[in-house]
Structures are given as structure tokens and as C-alpha cells.
Amino acid sequence: MFEVRLAQKGEIVYQKEIWKLCFGDQDSYIDFYYANRYKEHETLLLLYNGDISAMLTMIPVKLVTPDNQIFHAAMLYAIATHPQKQNRGFATHLMNYSDEYLKANNKNLSVLVPAEEQLFSYYYKRGYEKGFYIRETSLNRHKIDTLPISQTHKGTISPIVAEEYNLRRNKQLSDRFYIAYEDEDINYQKKLSRQSGADIYGIDFEKIQGCAAIERLSLEKVLIKEILLPEELLNEGIKLIVQQLDAKEYIVRTPAYLGGHLGGSIRPFAMAKVHRKINLELTPENLGYLGFAFD
């Protein structure tokens, strides 16, 4: 017999075991998540014969359209089945349950970020469509040093709080098709960034206020998970980041519409599934942007 329900107190140790076995993350990272982001009322569990066998998290987000429609949604995160219980349809059953749960709780759609390329087809069979894209490129220090800039732009970069980051983020993405986050989830990203040795930053050019979320992957590699600025200021913004965080390689992620001159490639990043009828069509032409997957 199996049962699906929200998580309860005293069950974290079993969830951590599944997380470790399925994702292979270090204990310190798993502990960090459960200390800083975990919420029982956002976590669904599937129990088989009384044992916790599968889990997923539903993080509240909003889908914002270019004409400023706002749809309540959830980002499914940490979808996992204990290795000894896999290939029994538990994850599918759990996701089907989440569909009905989210619909009953007035969520218009759910989004998720497949951890691997082959998982796109898995989620497609379960009703998800590609809807969110990023541009990703790898730049070495020499390439960044030779990026052309305007001598008239003098910018600054400094760490900022989550609330300020969110204001800047939403302003930079206005008139776009994107996922908006609660301040507390931007703050969680800030904690992830700071734990790595970086931060979330405000980038200022006179009246233009941009932002960037960055994680240091190693002494030689930095991941710019998000940078939001007008196209004409992007090079200057990247150079300011390099002054702040020295490395040999910088992986830069931007919305698909931004940074074409940097090279790299546009790839699908997240998928969506509509639960309640809405006046919205998810197509590759929309080039929706998600940004934070807390990966």
C-alpha cells in the first residue's frame, strides 16, 4: 500500500537519505538546504508500506507575461525516488498527485528544471513542455579583458540584500516572459552564493540598476548564474564582476535574448505544465526565462 501526503516533523533524516542516494550531493549541501529552505508544507512524500520512498518540493513562484499578467505557479524541485524503490512508477504517481494538489490550491501551472538532458523526454511524456531558455557561454580572462566597452560608462558593483535584488530583477525583466520569485527564495540564493565565496550583487551605471547572482565553483572557476543589464552595458557588467571575483574561467548564463555577442549557445533550461485553463501558450518563440533552479 502507498500513501501520498505532506511531510511531517521528524522525517528529515529519511528525506536526506533519499537526496544523498539520488543526487550525490555532499552532506554539507544537503544540511544547508534543510536548515535554510526546507518547509514541510511545501514537501510531498510518497510512502510505500509506511516507508518514505519518494519526495518532491513545490516552491511557490509566479509566471509574469510581457503584458504583465501574473499566474501563480510552483517550481517542482528535488524530485527523487529511493534507488531501491525505483521503476515502480512512484515518481509519476507523486507528480500526478502534485498536479491535483496544485490545481486545488489555485496554482495555474508548475515548472521544473530537468537535471539532465535525457530527462526532458521523461517529463515531456508527463505533460511538460519546454518553455524557458538560457544562453550559456564560457569565457576566459583574456576574452573578457578584450570585450569592447564604452568609455562613458562608469559602473560600480556591490553586494545587495534579497529585497533590493528582486526589485532590480523584476524591473530588468519587465516586458518579458519570466518566472518571478519570492524575496525569501532570492535570499536563499544569496546564502548559496555567500557559502560559495561570492554573493548577489547590484551593478549600477548612473540611472541603470542591474543585478547578478554569482557562485564560485572553485578557485579557478566562477558561475554567473544570472546577470541582468541592458545589452549595451553587459560587457561592462562582466568586467566589474571579474574585478570583484578573480578566476581563470567564467561561465555566464543570461536570458536567451541577451548576450548574443558573447557566443555560447541557447538551450532549453526549464519546462512547464498548465494545471488550470489560462490564456497563455507556451512555445519556444516565447523564450521564457526562469533563472534560478537552486542547482
Q: Helical proportion?
A: 25-40%
CATH homologous superfamily title of the largest domain: Gcn5-related N-acetyltransferase (GNAT)
Percent of sequence in beta strands? 25-35%
Task: Indicate the overall shape.
Answer: globular
Distance between the termini: 33 Å
The number of domains is 2
CATH architecture of the largest domain: 3-Layer(aba) Sandwich
Give average pLDDT, whole number.
94
Gyration radius, in Å:
20 Å
Instruction: Could you tell me the CATH topology label of the largest domain.
Output: Aminopeptidase
What's the CATH class label of the largest domain?
Alpha Beta
Helix count equals 8
SS-derived structural category: alpha+beta
Domain N-acetyltransferase: 2-150
InterPro entries: Acyl_CoA_acyltransferase (IPR016181), GNAT_dom (IPR000182)
Pfam families: Acetyltransf_9
GO molecular function: acyltransferase activity, transferring groups other than amino-acyl groups
